[in-house]
Amino acid sequence: MEMKKIIGLLLSAILATNFVLSLAQSKAANLEQQHIYINELMASNKSTVRDGDLDDPKHGASGGAYSDWIELYNASNEPVDLTGCSISDDGATWVFPQGSIPPKGYLVIWASDKDKVTSDGQLHTNFKLSADGERVVLKSPDGSVIDSVTYGRLADDESYGRNPDGSDEFTIFSKATPNASNNNSHAIVLEPVFSHQAGFYTEEFELELSANQENTKIYYTLDGSDPKPGESGTFEYSGKIKIKSRAGEPNVLSMINTGDYYWNPPLGEVFKCTVVKAAAVRTDGQASRTVTRSYFVDSDMMTRYSLPVISIVTDKANLFDKDTGIYLNSNKSGADWERPAHIEFFENNGTPGFSHYCGIRLHGGGSKGFAQKSLRIYADRGYDYKEKISYDIFPGLKDKVTGKSITDFKRLILRNSGNDWSNSMFRDALMHKLVSHLNLDTQAYRPSVVFINGEYWGIHNIRERYDNIYFASHYNLDKDNVVLLEVTYLGTIVANEGTDEDVQAYTNEIIDFLKSNDITQKDNYEYIKTKMDVDNFIDYNVANIYFANNDWPQNNVTMWKYKTKDGLYHPEAPYGQDGRWRWIIKDTDFGFGGPFMGSSGVSHNTLNHASENTQNEWAVFLFKKLLENSEFRNAFINRMADYLNTCFDPELVTNTIDEMKDAIASSIPEHNARWQAISDWDGEIELMRTFAKRRPDYVTEHIISKFRRFGVTGTYSVKLETDSSMGFIRINSIDLKSTTRGVNNPEAWTGKYFKGVPLTIKAIPKEGYVFERWEGTDEASDTLVLTPTKDISLKAVFKKASSTECKISGYVKPDLFSKADDIKADFKVEVLGLNVSALTDKDGYFELTVPESNTGYVFKISKTNYLSREIKKDTVLNDMALSSKESPLILWAGDVEIDGISDGAINLIDIMEVAKAFNTTPADEKYKADMDFNKNNAINMEDIVIIAKHFSATSDDYE
């Protein structure tokens, strides 16, 4: 048996013997319950003691998990019965089973949230303790309070308890004593107190440090190292420390050559701040936690920076030792190359944002070779008492499911702008911002200036990091059920979050399926839509193609999904929680005329690059394969047009570039003096502005060229007008509202679309209004599906809803069997004599509004090649349902139109017309989709049988 398991069993037995299960023969006396005390507790057990639960699925083999715990102490000389007693935190209550605690004995209760009693008697509550502090209450069975303890913030492995046992004196212990006496325990050494908070100062001052405990001395450093008595650089505090401007001091860290390429010494003296790290040390050698503070002193400090300021403090060797320093070993990565540090954040006016001990690593691929490197911040590695940074770093960032602001972060990136480092310093951030409102995952951005151990280190872009924590916070998910896969530049798929089984699941569900099935078939495409978010994948490709991102798709491809409990697709689940694969925008530095592309990037045919690159067939396979399906292809083309008309509009994009430029412009000179890497910043910005102005025309040319064989022969203009006070128009995926990015005038909007691709336009009234009619077409439905060959102009006319208007609704269904999920869609329901109609949705449901009438209406239900029917209602004075979902209106297929005219009967003529297209599929010229009644992508005997079912019928034969 493994040593860890043996230790776990022994620990379990020791703790369990102190809780003696008893029934009527128990010696416990309820009268003695007042002698029970909450004696000690631990709210962040990282390495102190395991809970002995060998059935724990993750930690059982190691002797159990490191669970929070509460220790009870019986101060009486008799056993005390705890049966029916309860213990609770601020949110949950747990009731004790039968049992007692021995005299002068201790009982450890695991606050593990497991809610169980193990086979060996270990007690596990239904809650965990908060490291931020809360109240724990012990109650008798009648609800009266036996004892309660309120504790404050506790660091990892710190315990809070009574000293001595059962007393009213509490302290935080430097070493916990679960299931043992606290009487000989030592309190922790308290942190030294600083007289001034960290931040910005315009004048020098004297910093005082104080300790509020006897037998302690304070030690401090000014070079970023941890205070260690007797070591060089550590000073014993004996009097006030002068904090002043460091102007005139020589550069130290900034003179270290940190680049595999592009390193230059700074031009002149870099700006510096003072970093103070201090700890109190007791005579027994026990030290307090170290306190780190950064002080910026300059007469113009309050206006010096327009960006937030970050100070990173760590031992110099952690970064710059030639053998172990991460900054000088940029080819190394992983947990072994993580170093402890402290990070402080200040708003540009000096207001403190957060202060946190963390782990740091280098971040990036090839960009790690630059002199200035990206840093990854880990706030959840046990360096700090809190496992997260809590601050509104990215104002406006929200959870996509709950709508709540995201202000807690466990991982962050301080990015050097990646491969754009020597160019604009915000190229990737720009592209993320342009598509952040779409059906895509992007990384929030906020530029900052960074100091390392007090020396100016230049502009760094604060970014979110993609990992399971990111998706948990953006979609209200359990991070342990997030899968994050990456396709390497060699074409292999690896699990950044998840298992090899998840990689195989993706391969089976998507890649292998598409290799062995015809995606032009409706059923196969419907299957794929249950495995991947096709709308997301379309947006993903549209974005990267518009960006001219030539470092993709042979690189930087990452997809994720949430693993549902049953592993299936759940369309009813909130967005992101339905179990489908989705793709993310990542590392787009090579886009927008980035490195190695320059001015030629604007004309790059990224559409062909992403769908025809046979040199990397694995990279283009998925997009190329899906483009074979006409529904996907048309959706992609329309989506590209939608975004070229709105969020990729040249004026909007150039304005965004200018805004992002202005945000960092005042910081560029100091940054460039530090690194001397950017040769022509203004020229680089102008290159991006030119890209924004010219890229739409090139993308349009590429679309026409690639899809000409499918009838995409050019473009046409669409002008849409309406009164926005009454309603709005939706064109494809775009709501023409003033709140939609890129829509400047929703009342008179013009866009450009591609010929040969069906266009969907819908008029949507506001509350209190109804759609009345279109101007520019005779169509009466509020939804139009058009395939124009020339410019069109439409106006949606709304009117105030009358109090006497009635809602008419119902369901329609064809009398045939089909697997197609839209077989019930697009049946037209019109009111004869009124310019009012509606189309059924995929469930067959329709809804329209008519004025009340004493003489009633005739409702006609029709669809191309179906036998129409009419429903007469003599009066319409209230809302009315013509049919229900359980009893829909049935329509019979088979009244085939010839030259747009049907004869009102299902007869031999109809069968003869179908015979002309018999045995054809969508790939055949004679195939006619309206004769493929069951929508199985083939006109065959099944369609003849459908006609024969109601042969010789006329509209009068409907019941």
TrEMBL record:
Transmembrane parts of this sequence: none
Organism: Acetivibrio straminisolvens JCM 21531
Source superkingdom: Bacteria
Protein name per Swiss-Prot or TrEMBL: Membrane protein
Keyword Chaperone in annotation: no
Residues covered by the LTD domain: 20-153
Family matches, as SUPFAM superfamilies: Carboxypeptidase regulatory domain-like (SSF49464), Lamin A/C globular tail domain (SSF74853), Type I dockerin domain (SSF63446)
Gene Ontology biological process: polysaccharide catabolic process
GO MF, one annotated term: hydrolase activity, hydrolyzing O-glycosyl compounds
Keywords, alphabetical: Signal
All copies of domain Dockerin, residue ranges: 889-959
